[in-house]
Amino acid sequence: DGELCLSRSLVNSSDKIIRKAGSTIFQHSVQGWRINSSLVLEIRKNILRFLDAERDVSVVKSSFKPGDVIHYVLDRRRTLNISHDLHSLLPEVSPMKNRRFKTCAVVGNSGILLDSECGKEIDSHNFVIRCNLAPVVEFAADVGTKSDFITMNPSVVQRAFGGFRNESDREKFVHRLSMLNDSVLWIPAFMVKGGEKHVEWVNALILKNKLKVRTAYPSLRLIHAVRGYWLTNKVPIKRPSTGLLMYTLATRFCDEIHLYGFWPFPKDLNGKAVKYHYYDDLKYRYFSNASPHRMPLEFKTLNVLHNRGALKLTTGKCR
Ligand code: CTP
User: What ipTM was predicted for this assembly?
Assistant: First the structure.
Protein backbone atom coordinates (compact mmCIF):
# COMPACT_ATOMS: atom_id res chain seq x y z
CA ASP A 1 0.00 0.00 0.00
CA GLY A 2 1.28 3.41 -0.90
CA GLU A 3 4.55 2.24 -2.39
CA LEU A 4 6.12 4.02 -5.26
CA CYS A 5 6.31 0.69 -7.04
CA LEU A 6 9.98 1.09 -7.76
CA SER A 7 11.04 -2.29 -9.01
CA ARG A 8 13.67 -4.13 -7.01
CA SER A 9 16.10 -4.28 -9.88
CA LEU A 10 15.85 -0.54 -10.19
CA VAL A 11 17.01 0.23 -6.72
CA ASN A 12 19.10 -2.80 -5.92
CA SER A 13 22.52 -1.62 -6.80
CA SER A 14 23.72 1.91 -6.92
CA ASP A 15 26.91 0.56 -8.53
CA LYS A 16 24.98 -0.54 -11.55
CA ILE A 17 23.29 2.80 -11.66
CA ILE A 18 26.61 4.64 -11.58
CA ARG A 19 28.01 2.47 -14.36
CA LYS A 20 24.99 3.16 -16.48
CA ALA A 21 25.11 6.88 -15.87
CA GLY A 22 24.89 8.62 -19.17
CA SER A 23 23.00 5.81 -20.83
CA THR A 24 19.40 6.16 -21.84
CA ILE A 25 17.96 4.97 -18.52
CA PHE A 26 18.48 8.50 -17.26
CA GLN A 27 16.57 10.16 -19.97
CA HIS A 28 13.34 11.75 -18.98
CA SER A 29 11.21 13.54 -21.43
CA VAL A 30 10.28 17.07 -20.47
CA GLN A 31 8.06 17.50 -23.49
CA GLY A 32 4.66 16.05 -22.83
CA TRP A 33 5.28 15.88 -19.07
CA ARG A 34 2.07 16.27 -17.12
CA ILE A 35 1.41 16.49 -13.42
CA ASN A 36 -0.35 13.47 -11.96
CA SER A 37 -2.35 15.22 -9.24
CA SER A 38 -3.78 12.09 -7.68
CA LEU A 39 -0.29 10.63 -7.30
CA VAL A 40 0.90 13.92 -5.77
CA LEU A 41 -1.89 13.70 -3.18
CA GLU A 42 -1.15 10.05 -2.48
CA ILE A 43 2.56 10.76 -1.91
CA ARG A 44 1.71 13.69 0.38
CA LYS A 45 -0.61 11.48 2.38
CA ASN A 46 1.96 8.70 2.68
CA ILE A 47 4.75 11.04 3.73
CA LEU A 48 2.43 12.48 6.38
CA ARG A 49 2.39 9.07 8.02
CA PHE A 50 6.10 9.51 8.73
CA LEU A 51 6.47 13.23 9.31
CA ASP A 52 4.56 16.47 9.21
CA ALA A 53 6.81 18.92 7.41
CA GLU A 54 4.86 21.83 8.83
CA ARG A 55 5.96 20.76 12.30
CA ASP A 56 9.23 18.91 11.65
CA VAL A 57 10.76 21.62 9.50
CA SER A 58 11.82 23.33 12.73
CA VAL A 59 11.83 23.01 16.47
CA VAL A 60 10.11 25.98 18.14
CA LYS A 61 10.94 28.11 21.14
CA SER A 62 8.72 26.16 23.49
CA SER A 63 10.57 22.91 22.62
CA PHE A 64 13.57 23.91 24.74
CA LYS A 65 14.82 26.35 27.29
CA PRO A 66 18.36 27.77 27.36
CA GLY A 67 20.72 25.37 29.06
CA ASP A 68 18.86 22.24 27.92
CA VAL A 69 21.14 19.43 26.80
CA ILE A 70 20.18 17.42 23.73
CA HIS A 71 21.71 14.41 22.02
CA TYR A 72 22.85 14.76 18.42
CA VAL A 73 20.48 12.98 16.06
CA LEU A 74 23.14 10.95 14.24
CA ASP A 75 25.59 10.70 17.10
CA ARG A 76 23.55 9.92 20.20
CA ARG A 77 26.55 9.69 22.53
CA ARG A 78 27.39 13.33 22.06
CA THR A 79 25.46 16.26 23.37
CA LEU A 80 24.79 19.91 22.64
CA ASN A 81 23.80 22.69 25.05
CA ILE A 82 21.02 24.95 23.89
CA SER A 83 22.60 28.40 24.22
CA HIS A 84 20.77 31.67 24.81
CA ASP A 85 21.54 32.84 21.26
CA LEU A 86 20.25 29.62 19.72
CA HIS A 87 17.14 29.72 21.88
CA SER A 88 16.44 33.33 20.97
CA LEU A 89 16.57 32.45 17.27
CA LEU A 90 14.16 29.51 17.48
CA PRO A 91 10.86 30.45 15.81
CA GLU A 92 7.75 30.86 17.96
CA VAL A 93 5.75 28.86 15.43
CA SER A 94 6.72 26.87 12.37
CA PRO A 95 7.88 29.21 9.60
CA MET A 96 5.93 27.00 7.18
CA LYS A 97 2.66 27.04 9.07
CA ASN A 98 -0.30 27.32 6.69
CA ARG A 99 1.93 28.10 3.73
CA ARG A 100 0.73 26.50 0.52
CA PHE A 101 1.97 27.03 -3.02
CA LYS A 102 0.84 26.06 -6.48
CA THR A 103 4.32 25.55 -7.86
CA CYS A 104 7.67 25.24 -6.12
CA ALA A 105 11.24 24.89 -7.31
CA VAL A 106 13.77 22.81 -5.40
CA VAL A 107 17.20 23.80 -6.68
CA GLY A 108 20.06 21.35 -6.18
CA ASN A 109 23.66 22.39 -6.63
CA SER A 110 24.88 20.31 -9.58
CA GLY A 111 27.01 21.88 -12.29
CA ILE A 112 24.34 20.70 -14.72
CA LEU A 113 22.77 24.12 -14.11
CA LEU A 114 25.62 25.93 -15.87
CA ASP A 115 24.46 27.14 -19.30
CA SER A 116 20.97 25.88 -18.57
CA GLU A 117 19.39 29.33 -18.83
CA CYS A 118 16.89 28.17 -16.22
CA GLY A 119 17.09 31.31 -14.06
CA LYS A 120 13.86 32.91 -15.28
CA GLU A 121 11.91 29.70 -15.07
CA ILE A 122 13.17 28.94 -11.56
CA ASP A 123 12.26 32.44 -10.38
CA SER A 124 8.78 32.11 -11.88
CA HIS A 125 7.77 29.51 -9.27
CA ASN A 126 5.72 30.61 -6.27
CA PHE A 127 8.25 29.29 -3.76
CA VAL A 128 11.94 28.60 -4.37
CA ILE A 129 14.00 26.31 -2.15
CA ARG A 130 17.79 26.28 -2.39
CA CYS A 131 20.57 24.34 -0.68
CA ASN A 132 23.65 25.27 1.33
CA LEU A 133 23.60 28.98 0.79
CA ALA A 134 24.62 28.48 -2.83
CA PRO A 135 25.56 31.77 -4.51
CA VAL A 136 23.06 33.11 -7.02
CA VAL A 137 23.95 36.62 -8.21
CA GLU A 138 26.88 35.62 -10.43
CA PHE A 139 24.87 32.74 -11.87
CA ALA A 140 21.47 34.41 -12.10
CA ALA A 141 20.86 33.55 -15.77
CA ASP A 142 21.21 29.84 -15.04
CA VAL A 143 19.93 29.52 -11.48
CA GLY A 144 17.75 32.60 -10.82
CA THR A 145 17.91 34.65 -7.64
CA LYS A 146 14.66 34.08 -5.76
CA SER A 147 15.28 32.20 -2.50
CA ASP A 148 12.33 31.77 -0.19
CA PHE A 149 13.88 28.94 1.76
CA ILE A 150 17.57 28.14 1.89
CA THR A 151 19.46 25.47 3.79
CA MET A 152 22.86 25.81 5.39
CA ASN A 153 24.86 22.89 6.72
CA PRO A 154 27.23 24.19 9.43
CA SER A 155 30.15 23.06 7.23
CA VAL A 156 29.32 25.88 4.80
CA VAL A 157 30.98 28.34 7.19
CA GLN A 158 34.28 26.56 6.65
CA ARG A 159 33.83 25.76 2.98
CA ALA A 160 32.52 29.01 1.62
CA PHE A 161 33.28 31.64 4.25
CA GLY A 162 36.82 30.80 5.37
CA GLY A 163 35.69 29.66 8.81
CA PHE A 164 34.98 33.35 9.55
CA ARG A 165 38.68 33.87 10.17
CA ASN A 166 38.75 37.34 8.61
CA GLU A 167 36.45 40.27 8.95
CA SER A 168 35.92 40.12 5.18
CA ASP A 169 34.61 36.53 5.44
CA ARG A 170 32.15 37.63 8.08
CA GLU A 171 31.10 40.64 6.01
CA LYS A 172 30.57 38.45 2.96
CA PHE A 173 28.38 36.15 5.04
CA VAL A 174 26.33 38.98 6.54
CA HIS A 175 25.86 40.42 3.06
CA ARG A 176 24.68 37.05 1.73
CA LEU A 177 22.16 36.70 4.55
CA SER A 178 20.93 40.26 4.22
CA MET A 179 20.05 39.49 0.58
CA LEU A 180 17.69 36.82 1.83
CA ASN A 181 15.49 39.38 3.61
CA ASP A 182 12.94 37.47 5.62
CA SER A 183 13.31 34.13 3.84
CA VAL A 184 13.72 30.96 5.86
CA LEU A 185 17.30 29.97 6.68
CA TRP A 186 17.27 26.28 7.62
CA ILE A 187 20.23 25.12 9.68
CA PRO A 188 20.56 21.42 10.57
CA ALA A 189 22.26 22.17 13.88
CA PHE A 190 21.42 18.97 15.73
CA MET A 191 22.64 16.30 13.30
CA VAL A 192 26.26 15.59 14.17
CA LYS A 193 28.85 17.06 16.47
CA GLY A 194 31.48 19.22 14.86
CA GLY A 195 29.62 22.26 13.62
CA GLU A 196 28.43 23.72 16.93
CA LYS A 197 30.99 26.52 16.96
CA HIS A 198 30.00 27.48 13.44
CA VAL A 199 26.33 27.52 14.32
CA GLU A 200 27.05 29.72 17.33
CA TRP A 201 29.03 32.19 15.21
CA VAL A 202 26.25 32.29 12.63
CA ASN A 203 23.66 32.90 15.33
CA ALA A 204 25.77 35.66 16.88
CA LEU A 205 26.18 37.41 13.50
CA ILE A 206 22.45 37.23 12.81
CA LEU A 207 21.66 38.76 16.19
CA LYS A 208 24.40 41.37 16.11
CA ASN A 209 23.45 42.60 12.64
CA LYS A 210 19.71 42.32 13.33
CA LEU A 211 19.23 40.31 10.14
CA LYS A 212 15.63 39.69 9.13
CA VAL A 213 16.20 36.15 7.97
CA ARG A 214 13.88 33.62 9.64
CA THR A 215 15.96 30.89 11.19
CA ALA A 216 14.72 27.31 11.38
CA TYR A 217 16.40 24.27 12.90
CA PRO A 218 15.01 20.87 11.85
CA SER A 219 13.33 18.70 14.45
CA LEU A 220 15.25 15.88 16.06
CA ARG A 221 13.07 13.31 14.34
CA LEU A 222 13.05 14.69 10.81
CA ILE A 223 15.95 12.81 9.26
CA HIS A 224 14.91 9.43 10.67
CA ALA A 225 11.33 9.98 9.53
CA VAL A 226 12.41 10.92 5.99
CA ARG A 227 14.73 7.94 5.83
CA GLY A 228 11.90 5.74 7.12
CA TYR A 229 9.56 6.91 4.38
CA TRP A 230 12.04 6.15 1.62
CA LEU A 231 13.09 2.82 3.16
CA THR A 232 9.45 1.76 3.30
CA ASN A 233 9.33 2.51 -0.39
CA LYS A 234 12.36 0.31 -1.01
CA VAL A 235 14.78 3.16 -1.51
CA PRO A 236 17.62 2.18 0.83
CA ILE A 237 19.32 5.49 1.50
CA LYS A 238 21.87 5.76 4.30
CA ARG A 239 21.24 9.41 4.93
CA PRO A 240 19.03 11.54 2.71
CA SER A 241 20.84 14.33 0.90
CA THR A 242 19.69 17.89 1.49
CA GLY A 243 18.03 17.87 -1.94
CA LEU A 244 15.98 14.76 -1.20
CA LEU A 245 15.06 16.15 2.22
CA MET A 246 13.81 19.32 0.57
CA TYR A 247 11.71 17.44 -1.98
CA THR A 248 10.23 15.34 0.83
CA LEU A 249 9.33 18.46 2.87
CA ALA A 250 8.01 20.29 -0.18
CA THR A 251 5.38 17.60 -0.85
CA ARG A 252 3.49 19.04 2.13
CA PHE A 253 3.36 22.61 0.83
CA CYS A 254 3.53 22.43 -2.94
CA ASP A 255 1.07 21.09 -5.49
CA GLU A 256 3.68 20.99 -8.25
CA ILE A 257 7.35 20.45 -7.50
CA HIS A 258 9.99 21.24 -10.10
CA LEU A 259 13.55 20.08 -9.49
CA TYR A 260 16.62 21.74 -11.02
CA GLY A 261 20.31 21.12 -10.40
CA PHE A 262 19.94 17.45 -9.57
CA TRP A 263 22.57 15.52 -11.52
CA PRO A 264 25.03 13.58 -9.35
CA PHE A 265 27.15 12.36 -12.25
CA PRO A 266 30.44 13.63 -13.61
CA LYS A 267 29.23 13.61 -17.22
CA ASP A 268 26.08 14.67 -19.00
CA LEU A 269 24.22 12.50 -21.49
CA ASN A 270 26.52 13.69 -24.27
CA GLY A 271 29.66 12.79 -22.34
CA LYS A 272 30.51 16.37 -21.44
CA ALA A 273 32.06 16.96 -17.99
CA VAL A 274 29.68 18.25 -15.31
CA LYS A 275 30.95 20.01 -12.18
CA TYR A 276 29.83 18.65 -8.81
CA HIS A 277 28.69 22.11 -7.74
CA TYR A 278 27.88 24.88 -10.20
CA TYR A 279 29.74 27.41 -8.07
CA ASP A 280 32.91 25.81 -6.61
CA ASP A 281 35.55 23.20 -7.28
CA LEU A 282 34.43 20.53 -4.88
CA LYS A 283 34.91 17.05 -6.32
CA TYR A 284 32.52 14.13 -6.58
CA ARG A 285 32.56 12.19 -3.33
CA TYR A 286 29.52 9.99 -3.55
CA PHE A 287 31.30 7.21 -5.39
CA SER A 288 33.29 6.44 -2.29
CA ASN A 289 31.83 4.53 0.62
CA ALA A 290 32.89 7.37 2.86
CA SER A 291 30.11 9.51 1.47
CA PRO A 292 27.02 9.40 3.64
CA HIS A 293 24.77 9.95 0.62
CA ARG A 294 23.54 7.78 -2.18
CA MET A 295 22.75 10.54 -4.60
CA PRO A 296 22.74 8.40 -7.76
CA LEU A 297 20.13 6.14 -6.19
CA GLU A 298 18.15 9.17 -5.08
CA PHE A 299 18.35 10.55 -8.61
CA LYS A 300 17.11 7.30 -10.07
CA THR A 301 14.14 7.44 -7.71
CA LEU A 302 13.36 11.04 -8.59
CA ASN A 303 13.55 10.10 -12.26
CA VAL A 304 10.93 7.39 -11.74
CA LEU A 305 8.74 9.96 -9.99
CA HIS A 306 9.23 12.36 -12.90
CA ASN A 307 8.13 9.72 -15.38
CA ARG A 308 5.02 9.10 -13.30
CA GLY A 309 4.12 12.79 -13.13
CA ALA A 310 4.73 13.21 -9.39
CA LEU A 311 7.38 15.88 -9.90
CA LYS A 312 9.20 17.50 -12.79
CA LEU A 313 12.93 17.05 -13.14
CA THR A 314 14.80 19.43 -15.43
CA THR A 315 18.36 18.50 -16.36
CA GLY A 316 18.57 20.16 -19.76
CA LYS A 317 18.17 23.67 -21.01
CA CYS A 318 15.14 25.78 -20.15
CA ARG A 319 13.77 27.72 -23.08
N1 CTP B 1 22.92 17.47 -6.03
C2 CTP B 1 22.86 16.66 -7.14
N3 CTP B 1 23.98 16.51 -7.93
C4 CTP B 1 25.12 17.13 -7.64
C5 CTP B 1 25.20 17.95 -6.50
C6 CTP B 1 24.09 18.11 -5.70
O7 CTP B 1 21.83 16.06 -7.41
N8 CTP B 1 26.16 16.97 -8.47
C9 CTP B 1 21.72 17.68 -5.22
C10 CTP B 1 21.65 16.75 -4.01
O11 CTP B 1 20.30 16.40 -3.77
C12 CTP B 1 22.17 17.63 -2.89
C13 CTP B 1 21.65 19.01 -3.29
O14 CTP B 1 21.73 19.01 -4.72
O15 CTP B 1 21.69 17.27 -1.62
C16 CTP B 1 22.47 20.16 -2.72
O17 CTP B 1 23.84 19.97 -3.00
P18 CTP B 1 24.94 20.00 -1.85
O19 CTP B 1 24.94 21.35 -1.27
O20 CTP B 1 26.19 19.46 -2.37
O21 CTP B 1 24.24 18.94 -0.86
P22 CTP B 1 24.41 18.14 0.49
O23 CTP B 1 23.45 17.00 0.47
O24 CTP B 1 24.24 19.04 1.64
O25 CTP B 1 25.83 17.56 0.45
P26 CTP B 1 26.88 17.38 1.58
O27 CTP B 1 26.23 16.58 2.66
O28 CTP B 1 27.95 16.66 0.85
O29 CTP B 1 27.25 18.76 2.03
Answer: 0.97
